[in-house]
């Protein structure tokens, strides 16, 4: 817990014919990494973290075929997926049946059965080393990695790995077609990418909610959104309803998850109810969305919550969707948006550090020091 260090480990090797070895040129710290750093998602043994990375192909297995060659510059989607199972064939790579054999199952849950594997995201999600390293093994390399054109810098393309497809999924799940009022909860990297995606899909109005002014300022500067500073549930809901003739937002996107800023009362409730974290942001979304509206959940939740407002879900006719983003489903289209200049991704970066300073990067990101929004590490 809170123990991230830079160490020397064995170089990865080809273990399967569909593997590739990537020399990492850029990687980033994600908000999801903080759940491991905080100890909220357990990982008892050391492992290499990181699921946002890109680099140069150094070696390919015999089964990769013509999809990749040595020297290709690639970005790698964060789910590890085979590309051939039932779920991969239904554009649900995060539920791949083959990448996480030790913990996969239909039930779902933190300590029971998971979906497909993720890079650098604990033994529960496959135990694969991640990309906050000099080299990384990429399984199913004929399905996941995408070659990046020379016209793009690493920083222009890096967030195609996770946060841009994730933010886009929150808007796509809501079937935004144009003219909607979208309220986004959480002004971190995923929330800002959701806002950029909302504009791409034709939203008429986009507002971001957060507790910290510097994060709201970053969202306003990089995504041209309106902002609401969170004080409490009631105040936020009232402000969103006031913006929409009393109805509420057409779409609410939850980008915070189970570890929001909490006061003593929130913490006491969690202890009494044997809950991990809090669902207060999600329940606020349920109030802030209009009747017949859509709530999409991009923030991570790892445990059940007492008093979840299922009555509100029913009475208001809310559509609720969430989960790991199907990055492979969207990445080609999103890459084209970047190539065509329809969206800019690298303007959210606030800190660039050498890989050797990863521990410092985790500290400032987790503790919101130095107005940190997004850290990119360079091996």
What report would you give on this structure?
The chain is of the alpha/beta class and 379 residues long. The chain has helices at residues 33-37, 86-89, 154-157, 163-172, 189-200, 213-223, 233-242, 264-272, 280-288, 310-316, 327-339, 358-366; strands at residues 20-28, 52-60, 73-75, 79-80, 117-118, 135-138, 146-147, 181-185, 205-210, 226-229, 249-254, 289-297, 319-322, 351-354, 375-378. It has two domains: 20-162 and 325-378, Medium-chain alcohol dehydrogenases, catalytic domain (Quinone Oxidoreductase, Chain A, domain 1, Alpha-Beta Complex), CATH 3.90.180.10; 167-322, Rossmann fold (3-Layer(aba) Sandwich), CATH 3.40.50. It contains twelve helices and 15 strands. α4 (163-172) packs across α5 (189-200), α4 crosses α11 (327-339) and α7 (233-242) packs parallel to α9. Residues 267-275 have low confidence and may be disordered. Keywords: Metal-binding, Oxidoreductase, Zinc.
List keywords for this structure.
oxidoreductase activity; alpha/beta; Putative Zn-dependent dehydrogenase; 2 domains; oxidoreductase; Quinone Oxidoreductase, Chain A, domain 1; ADH_Zn_CS; seven-stranded mixed beta sheet; Rossmann fold; 12 helices
Could you name the CATH topology of the largest domain? Quinone Oxidoreductase, Chain A, domain 1
Structural class call reads: alpha/beta
Strand percent estimate = 15-25%
Instruction: Output the CATH class name of the largest domain.
Output: Alpha Beta
Q: State the domain count.
A: 2
Number of strands: 15
Provide the low-confidence segments as ranges. Answer: 267-275
Largest sheet: 7 strands, mixed
Mean pLDDT: 93
Helix and strand succession? Answer: EHEEEHEEEHHEHEHEHEHHEHEHEHE
Q: Report the CATH architecture of the largest domain.
A: Alpha-Beta Complex
State the shape.
globular
CA-to-CA gap between the ends? 24 Å
Integer-rounded radius of gyration:
20 Å
What's the total helix number?
12
CATH superfamily membership of the largest domain, which one? Medium-chain alcohol dehydrogenases, catalytic domain
Helix proportion of residues, in percent? 25-40%
Organism: Hymenobacter swuensis DY53
Cofactor: Zn(2+)
Pfam families: ADH_N, ADH_zinc_N
Protein name: Putative Zn-dependent dehydrogenase
